[in-house]
Every structure is written in C-alpha cells, then in structure tokens.
Design goal:
The chain is mainly alpha-helical. The chain contains 17 helices and no strands. About 80% of the residues lie in helices and about 0% in strands. Helix 1 packs antiparallel against helix 11, helix 7 runs antiparallel to helix 15 and helix 16 runs antiparallel to helix 17. The chain is globular and about 60 Å long. Pfam families: Nramp.
Length: about 425
Amino acid sequence: MTTKSFRFGPATLVTAAFIGPGTVITASLAGANYGYALVWALLFSVFATMVLQEMAARLGIVTGRGLGENLRTLVSAPLLRWPLLLLVVAAIVVGNSAYQAGNISGAALGAEAIFSGVTFIQHWYSSTGIKFWPLVLGLLAATVLWFGRYKWIERCLIGLVLLMSLAFIATMILTRPDILALVKGAFWPQIPAGAMLTVVALIGTTVVPYSLFLHAASAAQKWPQADIDTRSALAASRADIAVAIPLGGLISIAIVSTAAIAFFGSGQQLDNVSQLAQSLTPLFGTAATWSLAVGLMAAGLSSAITAPLAAAYALTGIMGKPLDLKQPLFRLTWLAIICIGVLLSSLGIRPLNVIWFAQVANGILLPLMCICLLLAMNHKVLGAYKNNRRQNVLGALVLLVSLLLSGRSLALAFALL
C-alpha cells in the first residue's frame, strides 16, 4: 500500500460527523446574530479537533484497536472501569439515538426543499400522517452501513463531504461575503455582548467525544498493521487530518457567512434553517436556496451515517468484540439507532427526556474522554509513538476548553428541568 499521493481517509468521517444539522443551525445563528465576529471560535474548534483526532488516529494505528478496546485495558480497576464504560455507553449509544432524529430531520428538511413539487410525496403525508423523507433517508443510511465494508462506507461519506463543501461554499460565493469583515472575525478574537454561549456552542458542535471512537477504530481499519508500516500510516493519517478537518471548518465558516449576509443588521430574527433558505431567494435567486438545501441534506445524511457507526464502534470495543462491521452486535447497534431516529423524526416526536440525559452524559464525558485519551497517549504500549511534551501541552489546552464545554452542556441540560 502506498501513501505517496494524498487520499481522503478516516478524518473525512469525522468531518461528516460534526457537520450535521446541529452545526448548520449553530453556525447560522452565529452569523445571523453576530455577523463574522465569531469566526475565530470556529478556527479554534478546528485546531482543537485536529489535536484530539490526531491522538485518536495514532492510538488506533499503533495499537490496531479502537478507543473502546483501549479503554478496557487502560482502566484496570473494576470499580473505575465499569462506571466509566457504562457512562461511555450511555453517552455515545443513548445520546446518538436521541441526536439521530435531528440528523434525519435535518436531511429531510433539505430533501423537502429540493423535491417540494413532487405530488406523490405530498399525497403520502396527507394519507398516512407519516413523513416520507425520514423513512427514505433512514433506509439510505442503513444500506450504506449494511454492506459492512469500511472502504465502501468511507467513499460514500467522502462523496457527501465533497457535496456539502460544494453546496455551502457555492452558497457563500453567491451571497458575496464581506472578505475584510470575515478576515477580521477570524484573526481578531472578540466576544460581543450575549455571545458567550454561542462561542461555546460553536466549539461544542465540532469537538465531540464520539468522533474519537469513530476515528480511532476507522484508522485501525484503514491502515491495518499487516499491510503498511506504522510511520507511513501515521504520515498518511496526519495528511488526511490536515485536509479534511479544516475543510469542515471552511464549511462552517461558509454557513456563518451566508447567515451574516442574509440576516445580520437587518433587524430580522433567524429562528430556523428553513427561514434562512427562504430569505436567500429574493436577494440572491433560487441558486443560493438550492445550494443551501443540498448542503443541509448532505450534512444531515452524513451525520445520520456516522452517528450510528460511531456508537457501534464504541459499544463493540467496550464489550471486547473485534472491529468487524458485519459482527452481529455491531449491526444491531447501528440498526437500532437508525430505527429510533427514523421513528422519532417521521412521527415528529421530540425526545426531550432522552436529549436531556444525552446532554448531561456528554457534558461529563467530553473532559473525561480527553483525560483518558491523554493517559492512553502516554502509555507504554505506544512505545516511541507516545505523546511528546508539545502534544501533551496542546492536549491539556483542549482539556481546559472541554471543561468549559462540559459546564455549558450541563447548565443547558439542567435549565430544561
């Protein structure tokens, strides 16, 4: 296997995971309410994601195991191991089940905008009371995962990420951004009045714990130790991260820019992404609206594939099962999450209690996963590939940010009580 020419790899799955409906909504609100002022927060989130994902990928490549499997060996004391593993299962599996409804609903929103004139779909909903697109999109996600071949899944997600990139960046170009304001927002950090929670939300939609499980396991499968030497695999992985993660950041910046042009300073309030799409038509024509709809559909569908995939990697790894995409527990996990997401989305149910629990669990899990990852990256099993001082300092900085994100998630969750 050669690594001389660059190819997209597992880092693209991470981009597909964090550019979902939640990121689209958060970035849209940031642009609409604060213009370009918070672009710097997106740049920082890209940096933090690259730091953590490089460690996760290195762990998977060197050990040949996912993060879940490494956690089993890292925490040997049963009194610590089982509470930690149960928390991971609760946050990743249960949490992704709740968020899957949002992923599918977001993709359905984009699909409805694209195919709004199809009478069959309108007749379906009026006669059954069940939304059409969540069923179709859930079936697409299940089809991609059912084949159980990593390369096939990776190629599908690369295609969706490239489609997202073209759609959102084209929308930004069509809306003619203020380049000077964008550059100032990127390199002159400021927090306007009332923007602190939005800053934390922008970082929190990018730096997510389940991407660590996704990246470690997928890197171990992409570059198996029997097929490629470790140094070559690590070089390929770092090149992959250096392209794919910043590409995700560029998509987020494009969304911020589009919302800023359409809403910032207009006196209008942005309540949802549909409103953003509608506002673009009279200003910039149908091309911008269509681009936004295509991007939203691709973002929702990519996250609808990666969320169940990450949950399956996490659960099977924690249970000590091999990284086999056709393994029964692996398939059962992602299938259950897709079914829950389709059910909640197609019936229009908002799983408030489950989402509340997921936010609490994720709020605790993110800094905990950062600590566990740093401990794992300094373990003797990595040998010469352990963290150096610079990597530990950067990891500690991201840990501090994760504590801030944790506080925000917990505060938001308890505010729902």
